[in-house]
């Protein structure tokens, strides 16, 4: 029998979310019903709501940075039990597909095709409203009191960890740290430039500090972000608006030829170019984390790559969620990942549109929604 769930539904692009009571069907074979306790709001939720996401489907329930408790399990589910604490994963980990077995990527493809269509692996949705289907989002839909996910899309975590904080490890904080540790593999003593100081960029600063980077240059057009950046370990804060020349030139001059590693944490294709071009000739590596809108493309002179710079990208920080996320939770529990620093606002689901406003106004790092 289906249950009722309060949810913030995105009925159409660019419209405020509407809080309604949706119907949630029980989990089918290999699926799990989760009661969401808290969810962060990531810029990607706003990106999809804006209509710029080629995979954006409406009506849908957004949200992919959640923490919850297993409420029921479907047939054949063995790795989770009712009462387990979990973090939903938009990058599943089946441990069986070519991608999982490659040892080269975290991009499990077991459920990716249906996930991109807003559906569960059997090609249907578990959500409906007034008898009409509502689509899932990134396989998570954490802006709902109850949601259904494949078993392979849930990381089981310690029950002692506060879900209203470790939910941030479901996307932003893990993505930023993981991009530095797993994707770029920044080494001790390296110089690093981080473009964009939202949840992702600030987490990348934590990663750079963890590996003992010698210089961490934090770049943002909103100087209100610099205080937290410094607190987390940034050695220099730069506002591109303070300079008449391109930001890549500024960074190259500051660093005797460019940084060893850079990270684009905004989703702006011009900034992606700047992030590549501020890297040192011969070895500098730039990692794209930001998500750019439909139809946008990156460009640079190929000579930038011919002369040794490397361009890469990172999804969920290269982290394999079921295997590695419990370790991130442990680190947060030990105080090695200061989640509190990210949580600038908390609010009930009913006020979720305010969380989007705060993000667009540059006033929040992360808002955590409580159910
Ligand atoms: P956010 O809105 O919290 O932060 C973005 C920051 O970029 C803000 O501080 C803003 O002032 C700054 N900014 C905007 N334009 C700028 C410019 N021209 N130069 C310098 N700084 C600028 O966003 P977030 O939640 O931190 O997400 C950042 C990006 O990362 C988004 O594109 C999001 O979709 C993407 N993302 C990617 C992944 C992934 O796995 N690849 C995961 C999470 C988020
Ligand atoms: N759907 C978009 C791309 C969105 C995107 O790049 N998503 C990131 C995660 S952002 C989390 O806040 C990602 O991990 N992508 C890999 C994947 O498999 O989705 C588009 O352009 O179609
Ligand atoms: Zn996200």
UniProtKB/TrEMBL annotation:
<dbReference type="GO" id="GO:0106322">
    <property type="term" value="F:S-(hydroxymethyl)glutathione dehydrogenase (NAD+) activity"/>
</dbReference>
<dbReference type="GO" id="GO:0005829">
    <property type="term" value="C:cytosol"/>
</dbReference>
<dbReference type="InterPro" id="IPR014183">
    <property type="entry name" value="ADH_3"/>
</dbReference>
<keyword id="KW-0862">Zinc</keyword>
<keyword id="KW-0560">Oxidoreductase</keyword>
<dbReference type="Pfam" id="PF00107">
    <property type="entry name" value="ADH_zinc_N"/>
</dbReference>
<dbReference type="GO" id="GO:0046294">
    <property type="term" value="P:formaldehyde catabolic process"/>
</dbReference>
<dbReference type="GO" id="GO:0080007">
    <property type="term" value="F:S-nitrosoglutathione reductase (NADH) activity"/>
</dbReference>
<dbReference type="InterPro" id="IPR013149">
    <property type="entry name" value="ADH-like_C"/>
</dbReference>
<comment type="similarity">
    <text>Belongs to the zinc-containing alcohol dehydrogenase family. Class-III subfamily.</text>
</comment>
<dbReference type="GO" id="GO:0106321">
    <property type="term" value="F:S-(hydroxymethyl)glutathione dehydrogenase (NADP+) activity"/>
</dbReference>
<dbReference type="Pfam" id="PF08240">
    <property type="entry name" value="ADH_N"/>
</dbReference>
<dbReference type="InterPro" id="IPR002328">
    <property type="entry name" value="ADH_Zn_CS"/>
</dbReference>
<feature type="domain" description="Enoyl reductase (ER)">
    <location>
        <begin position="12"/>
        <end position="369"/>
    </location>
</feature>
<keyword id="KW-0520">NAD</keyword>
<protein>
    <recommendedName>
        <fullName>S-(hydroxymethyl)glutathione dehydrogenase</fullName>
        <ecNumber>1.1.1.284</ecNumber>
    </recommendedName>
</protein>
<dbReference type="GO" id="GO:0004022">
    <property type="term" value="F:alcohol dehydrogenase (NAD+) activity"/>
</dbReference>
<keyword id="KW-0479">Metal-binding</keyword>
<dbReference type="InterPro" id="IPR020843">
    <property type="entry name" value="ER"/>
</dbReference>
<dbReference type="InterPro" id="IPR013154">
    <property type="entry name" value="ADH-like_N"/>
</dbReference>
<dbReference type="InterPro" id="IPR036291">
    <property type="entry name" value="NAD(P)-bd_dom_sf"/>
</dbReference>
<comment type="function">
    <text>Has high formaldehyde dehydrogenase activity in the presence of glutathione and catalyzes the oxidation of normal alcohols in a reaction that is not GSH-dependent. In addition, hemithiolacetals other than those formed from GSH, including omega-thiol fatty acids, also are substrates. Also acts as a S-nitroso-glutathione reductase by catalyzing the NADH-dependent reduction of S-nitrosoglutathione.</text>
</comment>
<dbReference type="GO" id="GO:0008270">
    <property type="term" value="F:zinc ion binding"/>
</dbReference>
<dbReference type="InterPro" id="IPR011032">
    <property type="entry name" value="GroES-like_sf"/>
</dbReference>
């Amino acid at each position: 029998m289906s249950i009722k769930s309060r949810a913030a539904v995105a009925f159409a692009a660019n419209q405020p979310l509407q809080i309604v009571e949706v119907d949630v069907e029980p989990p089918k074979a290999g699926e799990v019903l989760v009661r969401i306790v808290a969810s962060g709001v990531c810029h990607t939720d706003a990106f999809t709501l804006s209509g710029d996401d080629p995979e954006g489907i409406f009506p849908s329930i957004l949200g992919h940075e959640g923490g919850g408790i297993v409420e029921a399990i479907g047939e054949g589910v063995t790795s989770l039990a009712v009462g387990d604490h979990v973090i939903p994963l938009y990058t599943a980990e089946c441990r069986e597909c070519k991608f999982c077995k490659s040892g080269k990527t975290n991009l499990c493809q077991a459920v990716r095709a249906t996930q991109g269509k807003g559906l569960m692996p059997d090609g249907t949705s578990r959500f409906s409203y007034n008898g009409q289907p509502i689509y899932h989002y990134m396989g998570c839909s954490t802006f709902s009191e109850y949601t259904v996910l494949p078993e392979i899309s849930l990381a089981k975590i310690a029950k002692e960890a506060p879900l209203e904080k470790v939910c941030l490890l479901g996307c932003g904080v893990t993505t930023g740290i993981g991009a530095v540790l797993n994707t770029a593999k920044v080494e001790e003593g390296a110089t690093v430039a981080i473009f964009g100081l939202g949840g992702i960029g600030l987490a990348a600063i934590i990663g750079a500090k963890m590996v003992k980077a010698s210089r961490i240059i934090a770049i943002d057009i909103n100087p209100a972000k610099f205080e937290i950046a410094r607190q987390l370990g940034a050695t220099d804060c730069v506002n591109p608006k303070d300079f008449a020349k391109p930001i890549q030139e500024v960074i190259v001059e500051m660093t005797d030829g460019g940084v060893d590693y850079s990270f684009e944490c905004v989703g702006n294709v011009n900034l992606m170019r700047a992030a590549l071009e501020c890297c040192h000739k011969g070895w500098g590596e730039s990692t794209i984390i930001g998500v750019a809108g439909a139809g946008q493309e990156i460009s640079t002179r190929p000579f930038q790559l011919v002369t040794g710079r490397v361009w890469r990208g990172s999804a969920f920080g290269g982290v394999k969620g079921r295997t590695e996320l419990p370790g991130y939770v442990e680190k947060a529990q030990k105080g090695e990942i200061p989640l509190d620093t990210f949580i600038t606002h908390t609010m009930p689901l009913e006020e979720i549109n305010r969380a989007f406003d705060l993000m667009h106004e540059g006033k929040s790092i992360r808002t955590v929604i409580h159910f």
